[in-house]
Amino acid sequence: MPAQQDKVSPFTSKKCPYCGNYLAIDKRFCFSCNNKVGKLNKKTGMAKEPINWISYIICFLSWAFLGFYMWWAFYKRT
Ligand SMILES: [Zn+2]
C-alpha cells in the first residue's frame, strides 16, 4: 500500500467551489464556469472562494435598505 498521502502536497488538483470541476493547483480561474477561484484548501481539496468585496457591500447595503424600509413601513403605519 503506497503512502502517497505523506507527501508535502497530497493534492494535484483543486475543486472549483462553484461548479465542482477539477482544476490545476495554480489556476486562478475556472475554465468551466469562468469564476475566479482562490488557493487550495488543504483540508477539503476545494479551491477557496476569493473574497468578493463588491458582493459583500451590495449584501450589506441591501440588508440596510431592507431594515430601513421595515422601519419606515412600521413608522408610517402608526
Ligand atoms: Zn467552476
Describe the structure.
The chain folds into two domains: 9-47, no CATH class; 51-78. Helix content is 32%, strand content 8%. It is built from one helix and two strands. The protein has one helix at residues 53-77, and strands at 13-15, 22-24. A two-stranded antiparallel ribbon has the order 1-2. The chain binds zinc ion.
Which descriptors apply to this entry?
mainly alpha; 78 residues; single chain; two-stranded antiparallel sheet; 1 helix; binds zinc ion; 2 domains; 32% helix
Major sheet size, sense and barrel closure: 2 strands, antiparallel
Ligands bound here?
A: zinc ion
Q: Taking strands numbered 1, 2, ... along the chain, how are they ordered across the largest sheet?
A: 1-2
Q: What is the string of helix and strand elements?
A: EEH
How big is the Rg?
Answer: 21 Å
- What percent of residues are in strands? 5-15%
Envelope shape: rod-shaped
Structural class comes to mainly alpha
Q: Determine the N-to-C terminus distance.
A: 74 Å
Number of strands: 2
Number of domains: 2
Number of contiguous helices: 1
Mean pLDDT: 86
Helix content: 25-40%
Give a brief rundown of this model.
With 78 residues, this protein is mainly alpha-helical. Helices cover 32% and strands 8% of the residues.
Topology:
Elements: E1 13-15, E2 22-24, H1 53-77
Antiparallel strand pairs: 1-2
The structure holds zinc ion.
Zinc ion is lined by residues 16, 18-19, 21, 30, 32-33, 35.
